[in-house]
Amino acid sequence: QVQLVESGGGLVQAGGSLRLSCAASGNIFSINAMGWYRQAPGKQRELVADITSGGITNYADSVKGRFTISRDNAKNTVYLQMNSLKPEDTAVYYCNAPLSRSLVLFSWGQGTQVTVSS
User: Fold this and answer.
1) N or C: which end of the chain has fewer CB within 10 A?
2) Which of 12, 39, 15 is nearest to 116 (CA)?
3) What is the mean pLDDT of residues 64-75?
4) What is the pLDDT of residues 9-19, one digit of tens each?
């Protein structure tokens, strides 16, 4: 079973940037899609960005133009570059492989906390 370890979160002021990393313990090059999710307090976990093995990306409207997802299959790592951060981006961020709107392939990691102050 592939383990996912997210890192790179922290406290940042509004307008700032962070780069999140998700390291997988096994090969992900054969996984068609990898994605970044986030869960804010009292809210459901939501998919904010995903990327196919061929590099096609999709973004939630709330992050489009500000976040960029990328993947390095050789390093089994997925990244999320977050720019122009807003307080409403505050959440715990997770990575996983989306199978459907509500299903994912792997067990959830511990996530990484992102806090954006106003």
Assistant:
1) N
2) 12
3) 94
4) 999 999 999 99
